[in-house]
Design goal:
Distance between the termini: 13 Å
CATH topology: Spore Coat Polysaccharide Biosynthesis Protein SpsA, Chain A
Number of strands: 9
Structural class: alpha/beta
Strand content: 15-25%
CATH class: Alpha Beta
Shape: globular
Number of domains: 1
Length: about 280
């Protein structure tokens, strides 16, 4: 694994209790990898903790909460590597094989724009798995269903999927820049369909790796805001996701109708025989 090829990027908000564990994981799994943390005006000890315990991290501190999409775009501005490993602060990485597998998937074909692992809720013999946008495909839903029925997914082959959950994904920089990045209007939620449907328009693919996983303690930072504000955020989430889907699919429909694609011909995949 060539750790100089990617940067780890984390957007935080009131994540002091979670991000320290993730930064320790990155230290152990990819000690040579640059790490960028974009903090969206946390009111807890996130900033002080990172400065004191993780001096190797490039910390970008915003004076106001700019939202997730702007935070990711901001992190890209401060990185220069070929790939970027985008992470939520409440992710735990069990071992370096997770990173190696995702990096290998991107290296295998220039058509791959985004790739992600399974996301388990706890580290157990038979882990729980929550439904997320990575399972919005026939085969990937089968992976989710198999775990719901307490059966491990037997195949280790990567699965192409319409969407990848943005809580843990590797992105190809050239693809991300080509599609115009994540729309900054999506303050929180909506970034998954916005990003992945743009990738689809430009001829890139998203892949889920069922042979590796991370642990995702979902939405912990959301519970640090007042209940009424959480309710508003959830209603806005429904609007954002719907808007991103409608906009993305409408543009794909128009592309297919006119026969004009943003980047001309699609790339040709090399397949997965070398993974």
């Amino acid at each position: 694994m060539d750790q100089t090829k990617f940067t780890s990027l984390i957007v935080t908000y009131n994540s002091a209790h979670e991000i320290s564990d993730l930064l320790v994981d990155l230290r152990m799994c990819a000690p040579s990898c640059p790490v960028i943390v974009v903090d969206n005006a946390s009111q807890d000890q996130t900033v002080d903790m990172i400065r004191g315990q993780f001096p190797e991290v490039l910390l970008i501190r915003n004076l106001q909460n700019l939202g997730y999409a702007r935070g990711v775009n901001q992190g890209f501005d401060h990185s220069s590597t070929e790939y970027v490993f985008v992470l939520n602060p409440d992710i735990r990485i069990p071992g370096p094989q997770v990173i190696t597998a995702m990096l290998g998937c991107l290296e295998n074909s220039p058509q791959v724009g985004a790739v992600g692992p399974l996301q388990f809720t706890v580290e157990e013999k038979m882990p729980g798995i929550k439904f997320n946008c990575s399972h919005w495909g026939l085969r990937t839903f089968g992976v989710y269903l198999s775990y719901q029925l307490h059966h491990n997914w037997s195949s280790t082959q990567p699965i192409q999927t319409p969407l990848i959950n943005a809580g843990c994904m590797f992105l190809r920089r050239s693809a991300y820049e080509q599609i115009g990045r994540i729309n900054p209007k999506y303050f929180l939620y909506g970034e998954d369909p916005d990003l992945c449907l743009k990738l689809r328009r430009y001829g890139y693919e998203c892949w889920l790796l069922p042979n590796v996983h991370v642990i995702h303690y979902r939405q912990r930072s959301l519970h640090t805001v007042p209940r009424r504000e959480r309710l508003c955020i959830r209603w806005q989430a429904i609007w954002n996701i719907g808007d991103a889907f409608l906009t993305g699919w409408w543009r794909i429909f128009l592309d297919n109708l006119t026969g004009n694609r943003p980047n001309g011909n699609r790339l040709k995949s090399r397949g997965w025989q070398n993974l």
